[in-house]
Each structure stands twice: as structure tokens, then as C-alpha cells.
Design brief:
Shape: globular
Structural class: alpha+beta
Number of strands: 17
Number of helices: 21
Strand content: 15-25%
Mean pLDDT: 90
Largest sheet: 6 strands, antiparallel
Length: about 575
């Protein structure tokens, strides 16, 4: 009927407009105070931004300052007319320019506050400009979200760059030989031009006058041992709020569902929100996605969860050979040689491509819970609750080097946005202030890892999850997709690296010297792809503490993992 056609047209038009004006799936690039000519600055910005096009493949935007010495670049997904919602965003008087990757969850609060400001788009990120006009460089303290941005003030000839507290959105910075400062979502856009390259640390801001400063410094940051007792109801409420906050979208979205505790809780809370508050969401069907080798633990567990909570579930399988064939691409996209990150990122890389092909633009994921609650199996071996807490702090502070890097770059390789409820600022700050005695697992006392998180959602009357899932032992993602994946990739690396080659590891790679042949192989590929002397220093290797194993797999933690394998100490 005509009415049906009219409704469908309206839905399609609304979706296109939203993607055009609000899409933040992007890569950012900036050159600040270059000594090159204006034309050279513009061309360099355009050229280097192309290296980030996978993060936003459909349109490019560039802004150059009046003096031609500063340029901001942005790679984004656009559908129709590029004249609306473009980035870089520019203030009405042309004096403030902003390129940003991220999502500001409290943007409506500031849109209400700055009603007189002539917003050009519906983008939540545009509120950064009026915030800056009122608060200056302190504006970043008021943002609740995930973000990496560079803002340039023409009148002051100054820059403000900032990254979200947990480092969900990636950003690097470098120094050029002419003294200019460069920023990019990924280091590959800097390595051909900058003399030095470094991570832009989470919770930091950079200003022309003061350089790098930390703006996020909660009580737990100094690692003093807290004593607040557990409040299960508060954990449940804060996490529920965090999930629902990240569901505000006018595009089809879904959840990554491995069948483990963390992703299952995200999926369950999201599913409940849709069922109870369906009128708040344009798309009432929640899609869930899982990947694994045929017959893997994750695929079976995810299907069970999906059936219990009522999602439209999609399972994807891959083979060990598929993973081996993709290793070089994964290392290039992730810019790391860390063993556990590469193992886990490879299946996630495949899954993100499939999700994007189905038309889903955003997914919720479960990163962060293991760091907050001490969920990795090696935490069972913590010698004291104080040491347990300090290790949790260390892991949370380094999320940008591991799980956040994996989640961001594996998915952004295909232009898919990931949101992580466990890393909500309010939730993080609350959980990190809980007495570590309440969080610490104990094999001896039969206290499973993340026990208080499980207890908070153990509702007998209205179960969030089946008991077998709610109390399932921790599986690292690279293990859960199928144990044959790790065994296969390790065996493959062993065949690529001879004993003679491996004996030269210390000489060839003095920074983070590989301790296994698998690590050696990844490092070899990494160095072929990234030639800059700074690049090896941007990587940290994930190694379990309080364990003698050289293998980061959860199965290598003997007497803790139910399916622990032998030979974990062997140098392969």
C-alpha cells in the first residue's frame, strides 16, 4: 500500500540521515604547527588520512587553518550528501575546528545547556566545541563517553587533544623533525613522517602550553587498597545503566556473544532493556554474534544463552587455516606483536567483517570485566588481597594495550563500532573501590573468579542467565573459540622459526625479546610491516603474573583451569 511505502521511505531516509550526521566510525589525523607550505600540509594530511580509511571508508574531510600550518583530517562513513554532519566540525565563526572519533553519552545534557549555540549537526561529538568555549581545556573533564579528539583554536594558535579515561578509542602522537606535533588514530599514519611515535595515554590531554597532563585521576589510580564492602544491588544497577546508556542508537545494533560470563551479561541486560523499554529503541530485535571453530566451547555456550534471552543469533565458524592466512593482515591492522592479542584478535577480525556485511553498524561487547574483578585464572595465585588489588589496577591501566586495542582495531578494520559497558566511568570507579578481599578468587575455598559479579546477577525469580553460564569458568577468547586454534597457530609458528633463528632472538629484538617461537614469528612479521624505530616500544606483551608459564593461554594456568594442558612451560 501507499501507506506502507511511505513508512518504509521514512525509515530508510531517517537511517541514511542518522548515518550521515551521527556516524563516528572513523579515523582522525592531525598536523599541528608545521613548517611546510600550506599546500604541502594539506596534501600530507590527505595522504596520511588514507591509511586510516578502513576505519571510515566512505568519505574524507580535511580542514586547514588560515595560516596553512595546521590541518585536521577525518575518515568517515557517509551515505548520501556529504554537506551535512561533516567532520572536521567547525564553530560558526570558523575559529574552532575539531576532529573526533567516539561517542559522548551525556551529549543531550549539554545540548540542553547550550541551546543558544548554533549546532550544525545532530552529532553527539559537536558538544565538545561549546564546552571548550566555556571551560577551555578543562572541558574534557565533563565528557562521559569513549573518544579521541584533536581541537584547534585559531585565535590562540593552540591545540587540545584528549583521549577517554579507559583508552577505548585509539590514538597515537608523534614529533616531526620540524618540531610539529602529529596525531593519528593508528600509528601507521605517522611512521613515514615522524621522528618519534608514542601512544597517547588514556585519561590524558595535550595542550600547546602545558604538553601532556593527566585529567582522569580517581582515588584508585594511586593503587591504595580500598575497604568498601560489596553492594550487589549497586553493581547490578550501575552495570544495567551502563549497558542501556550505550544502546542509544538509531541504527541496527547487536552484541558480541561468546557464551562466557561477561558478554552474556551484556547481552542479557540489553535484551531485557529492549523487552521492557521497547518504545525507546527503533530496532526491537537484538542480534547476537559468535565465532569459533566447529564444535568450539563458545559456539555451544553462546547458542544456549541466545535461546535463553531471546536474541536473533548468528554463529560463524572459521578454520585454523583461515586464521593462519589472516595473521599478517591482523598484525598490520592491530599494530601489535603481543601473542595473546593476536590470538584473540584473529577470530574477532573475521566476526567483525561478517557483522558489517549484515548491515549492523554497532555492537556491545564485554571487555574490561576481567581486569576490574580479577577474572583471569592467574589471579587465583595472588599471594594476598593487596597484591590482587594492585594487579587489577595495573591491568585496568593497560587495557588500551590489550583488550581495548583488540576490540577497537579488530572491528574498526571493517568500519564497525564497539561499545564496552564494563568500562563505564561510574561502574569502573565503583568496582575499583571495593575491598579486594571480596573480589579475590580462591581455588582452595572454591570461590570462583568474578564471584561478586555473578552473585549480583544471580536472580532466582527472573534469571538473567542459565546457571551453567552464569557460573561457567573463565575462558580467554582465544581459548573459547576452540582449543585447536591456539594449538594450530603455535604449531605453525614452530615450523616457521628454526632453532638457529630463535637463538638470535635477543640480538634481533632487544625490546620485548620473544620467549617462544610463536612470539618470534609475530615479531618478525611486525618488523616487516612497521619499520620505524619507535614502533616496538608501542607494544607491551601480556604475561600472566604469579605463574611460571611462557604461554598466556588460560589453559596454561595449571591446577586452576579445568582443562589445563601439559607442556605449558615448553618454549615452542
Amino acid at each position: 500500500s501507499k501507506a506502507t511505502v511511505s513508512v518504509l521511505y521514512w525509515i530508510i531516509f531517517s537511517l541514511f540521515y542518522y548515518l550521515l550526521a551521527n556516524n563516528k566510525m572513523c579515523g582522525i589525523f592531525a598536523i599541528i604547527h608545521s613548517k611546510s607550505t600550506p599546500q604541502q600540509v594539506r596534501q600530507r594530511c590527505l595522504f596520511n588520512s588514507r591509511l586510516l580509511r578502513h576505519r571510515g571508508p566512505d568519505w574524507s574531510g580535511v580542514w586547514v587553518s588560515p595560516d596553512g600550518k595546521t590541518a585536521l583530517g577525518h575518515e568517515r562513513l557517509a551515505i548520501v550528501d556529504p554537506a551535512s554532519g561533516e567532520q572536521p566540525l567547525v564553530s560558526p565563526d570558523g575559529k574552532i575546528a575539531l576532529c573526533v572519533n567516539g561517542e559522548i553519552y551525556n551529549h543531550q545534557k549539554f545540548r540542553q545547556k547550550y541551546k543558544s549555540y548554533p549546532f550544525k549537526t545532530e552529532s553527539d561529538c559537536e558538544v565538545i566545541i561549546p564546552l571548550y568555549l566555556e571551560y577551555g581545556t578543562d572541558c574534557v573533564k565533563y565528557l562521559d563517553g569513549m573518544f579521541a579528539f584533536v581541537l584547534y583554536d585559531v585565535d590562540k594558535q593552540s591545540v587540545l587533544a584528549a583521549r577517554d579515561p579507559m583508552g577505548i578509542c585509539s590514538m597515537y602522537y608523534g614529533k616531526h623533525a620540524d618540531g610539529s606535533t602529529w596525531f593519528a588514530s593508528e600509528a601507521k599514519a605517522l611512521q613515514n613522517d615522524c621522528a618519534t611515535i608514542e601512544w597517547f595515554q588514556p585519561g590524558n590531554k595535550f595542550t600547546t602550553s602545558s604538553g601532556i597532563q593527566r585529567y582522569y585521576a580517581p582515588n584508585w589510580w594511586e593503587e591504595s587498597v580500598p575497604s568498601k564492602k560489596t553492594e550487589l544491588a549497586t553493581i547490578r544497577k550501575l552495570f544495567t545503566d551502563a549497558v542501556e546508556k550505550r544502546m542509544m542508537a538509531d541504527v541496527p545494533f547487536g552484541v558480541l556473544l561468546s557464551g562466557g560470563l561477561d558478554s552474556s551479561l551484556v547481552a542479557s541486560v540489553a535484551s531485557r532493556a529492549i523487552k521492557s523499554k521497547g518504545d525507546q529503541f527503533q530496532f526491537p530485535t537484538l542480534h547476537s554474534f559468535c565465532i569459533g571453530l566447529p564444535g568450539s566451547p563458545d559456539i555451544a555456550a553462546a547458542q544456549k544463552v541466545a535461546k535463553a534471552i531471546g536474541t536473533k543469533h548468528h554463529s560463524l565458524t572459521f578454520t585454523v587455516q583461515d586464521g593462519l592466512d589472516a595473521l599478517r593482515d591482523v598484525i598490520y591492522k592491530l599494530e601489535t606483536y603481543d601473542v595473546t592479542t593476536i590470538r584473540a584478535s584473529t577470530p574477532m577480525y573475521f566476526l567483525a567483517r561478517k557483522i558489517k556485511s549484515l548491515g549492523v553498524k554497532m555492537v556491545l561487547s564485554g571487555e574490561g570485566a576481567d581486569e576490574l574483578f580479577g577474572g583471569y585464572l592467574y589471579f587465583h595465585n595472588a599471594p594476598s588481597s593487596d597484591e590482587f588489588h594492585r594487579e587489577c589496577c595495573r591491568r585496568v591501566k593497560r587495557l588500551h594495550l590489550f583488550d581495548n586495542l583488540r576490540a577497537n582495531k579488530s572491528t574498526m578494520a571493517w568500519g564497525l563500532e564497539v561499545r564496552v559497558p564494563f568500562l563505564d566511568q561510574s561502574f569502573v570507579n565503583h568496582v575499583m573501590e571495593i575491598d579486594p578481599k571480596d573480589k579475590q578468587p580462591s581455588r582452595k575455598d572454591k570461590k570462583i573468579e568474578k564471584a561478586i559479579l555473578r552473585q549480583a546477577f544471580d536472580d532466582a525469580d527472573m534469571p538473567y542467565l542459565p546457571k551453567s553460564v552464569l557460573w561457567r569458568q573463565k575462558e580467554q577468547f582465544s581459548d573459547g573459540v576452540g582449543y585447536s586454534w591456539i594449538d594450530g597457530v603455535r604449531d605453525y609458528a614452530t615450523m616457521q622459526v628454526t632453532d638457529e633463528m630463535f637463538s638470535q632472538a635477543g640480538k634481533l629484538y632487544p625490546v620485548n625479546t620473544p620467549t617462544t617461537k610463536e612470539a618470534f614469528y609475530y615479531r618478525q612479521v611486525f618488523d616487516e610491516l612497521f619499520h620505524h624505530a619507535s614502533m616496538p616500544h608501542t607494544v607491551e606483551c601480556w604475561v600472566p603474573k604469579w605463574s611460571n608459564t611462557t604461554d598466556p593461554s588460560g589453559r596454561a594456568i595449571k591446577e586452576v583451569h579445568d582443562d589445563a594442558y601439559t607442556g605449558a612451560k615448553a618454549k615452542l
